[in-house]
User: Fold this.
Amino acid sequence: MLQTIRERRGLQVLGLMLPGGFWLIVFFALPLALIFAISLMSRDELSRPALPLTLANYQQTFDPLYINLFLFSIGLSLLTTLITLIIAFPVALFMARLPRRWRTVMTLLVMIPFWTNFLVRTYALQFLMRANGPINTLLLNLGLIHEPIQMLSTPFAVLVGLVYGELPFMILPLYTSLEKFDWSIVEAAQDLGADALRTLVRVVLPLTAPGILAGSILVFVPSVGSYITVELMGGGKINMIGRVIAQQFGQSGNWPFGSAISLILMVVVTVAALVYFRIGRGERSAL
Amino acid sequence: MANDFAVELRDVVKLYGNMAAVDHVSMSIRHNEFFSLLGPSGCGKTTCLRIIAGFERPTSGQVLIDNKIMGLTPPFQRNVNTVFQSYALFPHMTVEQNVAFGLEMKGVSRAEINRRVGEALELVRLPHLAKRYPKQMSGGQQQRVALARALVNRPKVLLLDEPLGALDLKLRKEMQIELKTLQRDVGITFIYVTHDQEEALTMSDRIAVMSHGKALQIGSPLEIYERPTCKFVADFIGETNFLEGRVTAVNGEFATLTIRNGYVFTGRRVNGLQVGEVATLSVRPEKMQLVEHPVEGSANTYEVTVFSIAYVGSDTRVIINLGDQRLDVWEQNSTSTLNPDDYFFKPGEKAWLTFKPENALVLAQ
Assistant:
């Protein structure tokens, strides 16, 4: 048997592919196939997925109601990505320029929130933003406002929740690419007459594009499909596509429709990521 | 104008914590001069350069470029350009784009940029590589791009931080000549940082020898080599023999020194040394001769024992013993012969060492 494997190259390749292939099939291809199958099914009287096969679930997805939800989710996620980028870049820059010992400390500080349950952190945020919470109390006492601002159950609250939750996923890839950055290149740009802004635009940003891309995708993808944040910060009044999917698999008990939306979401995110990479690459070669 | 200089440092100090990287340095660099900052690593030469470029702010003292006090002027507003030790080329730009960068920042028109970039690449003989990216080029080529990128801006002063440090010896020698020629042709002041004394001697109009943040001596290569004003400079530039002792007589330009083992030597008196002071006689190996018979009554002449000889092509390097004092003497091989016996001295033989007082220096300890 071993002899045969040694002699036949085809078998060797197959053998090497086995562990990875097994992993891919069991954890990726099979679930995906399952979701795809369910998305094409109808429901029986007990709301269980059943035959006959139908395209109705996909047709339903293109209802303006859901199209708008998709657009809203994508829009809010893009905004989340942009805001995290704006916040994370200076933080990552600051971290990367610290002495080596302090960098480790800062990295740890960025990661520590992960050790607290995400649900607990979101509840804490909810508490801060309540009508009688610390933020409103402070603003009232300072006389800046005369009645509490309604912050929860607004898109703003969801945005804050998403930005807060996703920030580390932007900081860490940015930090990684900035840490490797050769700062003498920045000096060269300044030496050649570039002020801080032009150095940033012409030199630092293009060279850290891989980090920006990675961070943006790490933030955008979970944001589009986010559920807990929308549920807690939106107070049931804000709906995003991830929440719709959760409802279909939960309360509504409509697995086929939930599967259809999930797959559409996956396609949308994949296309967005591809476009994003294409833009990123275009920028690099154009500069 | 009497005080018309390209760059002036006035009593510049740069402290890092308690450590003075630059310690009260003053120097005036003339227009179109090839000026080198020479010293071992950590002597403050690169910090001086970075202070001129504006990357470091002096703790105290002033920098003047083209007779204007720089103060807090940021690097991008200074009329100097730098060739970095690591070249620091923009990896995401082609050679052409790298060279054009400075002109774009100045808002020069596209047509003018194209023309000048072409000229600059012509100057460093790289026009055929304009579309390449830095990582597709050799170290020597990258070095030329860095040079073109700086020169294209026609700066008042070009700052070069060990620009040839990363190149192999042969290429370095070629580039030394090329850089010197280039500097003469473009008529720009070069301030050149190096730890390679031969490089500094070959290329410079003037050299500042630095150690521990201080500029110990500033002068032409000739002055630095022939008339060092302190032990460090005498030791750092070229080879020399040091004989330590005490000044026993002073006679105008000359001082006489009695060394530990009782021998007495006379050399040029430096640093205004007085009788009784501890001093060092510095005499270079090529400025001494070994002879069979001494000239009657000549100074600095003693019988010595040859310890070893080494034939190194252009000269023969002889190590001799003068009592317990060991000295290097280099004899030029001015005749061509294949017979080893033609080289007069052999280890163990006696010979007479002699050198003129004007060829030696008596330096402060």
User: Anything to note?
Assistant: The mean pLDDT of chain A is 86. Residues 63-286 of chain A form a domain with the MetI-like fold fold (CATH 1.10.3720.10).
